[in-house]
Amino acid sequence: MAEILAIKPAAVEGPVVARLDKGVLRLTLANPPANALSLAVMAALTAELERAKADKAVRVIVLSAAGKVFCAGHDLKEMTARRTDADHGKAFFAETFAACATLMQAIVRHPVPVIAEVDGLATAAGLQLVASCDLAIASHEATFCTPGVNIGLFCSTPMVALSRNVSRKHAMEMLLTGETIDAATAKEFGLVNRVVPREYLNQIVTKYAQTIASKSSLVVKTGKEAFYAQAETGLADAYAYTGRIMVENMLARDAEEGIGAFIGKRKPEWTDE
Length: 273
Known about the structure:
By secondary structure, this protein is of the alpha/beta class. 48% of the residues lie in helices and 16% in strands. The protein has helices at residues 39-53, 76-81, 90-108, 125-132, 156-163, 168-177, 183-189, 198-213, 217-231, 235-250, 253-263; strands spanning 4-6, 16-21, 24-29, 60-65, 69-71, 114-118, 121-123, 135-139, 143-145, 181-182, 194-196.
C-alpha cells in the first residue's frame, strides 16, 4: 500500500504513491509501463481513497500516473492466466469487474473533488478512470480509446462512465470503432475539461486543485454530492431535491459567513461547518 507523505517528495515504491501538500492529495499510479488496473492496483487506489475520506486535511485529490501511459485498463495478462482455473476464470473475472465498479463509484461518491491529470494513453478501464473523475485536464500528448471491440471484449463497464460524460453518438463512435482520439477531440467530446502543453500540465492541475481547496470543504462536499444525485433523477424531483439542499446549505455557518463576507466586501474565513 502507498504511504501518505506530508509536503515531501513521493519516494515510496508501490502500485500507488500518495503525497499530501496544502490540502491536495496526489495519488500517482506507479506501476509502469502500463499502469494497468490489476486487482492489487485497484485495491491500493481504493484504500487510499477510503483513507482520504477520514483525513480532514485532504480537500482535493489529484489522480496522476508515472510513465508514458496514464492507464492501459485492466491487466489482461493477469486475467488471461486465470483461464486455467476450474471455472475458466469466471469467478476471478467477476471479482475484477466488481472491484473496478467499487473503485469508480468510490471516486464519484468521494466527499472531495477528484481531478484526473492525464499525460499519455488512457484506454478501456483507464479511460473509465478519467471519466469517473470530477474534472480531467490533459496534456496535448494525451490520447484516449475504448478498444475492447478490437479484441473481442466490448468495453461495457467503461461505457458506463463514458456515456455519462459525452453524447451518445460520441460514446458509440468510440465504443464501436475502438479508434484512438487525441486530446483535442476528447475536449470536443466533453471527456476532458482542458488541454494544455505537457510542460504546464502539473502546474495548471495544481492551480485548479488549490483553487478548489481554498473553498469551504462543507460546501464543496454538499455540492458534489448533490450534483450526482440530481443527475440521476427526473427534472421535477431534481428541483425538489436541490431545493432542500439549498435550504440546508443556507443554514450552514459557512454560508452565513460567505454571504456576510460578500456583502461586507471582505475575504471569508471558512470553518467548514
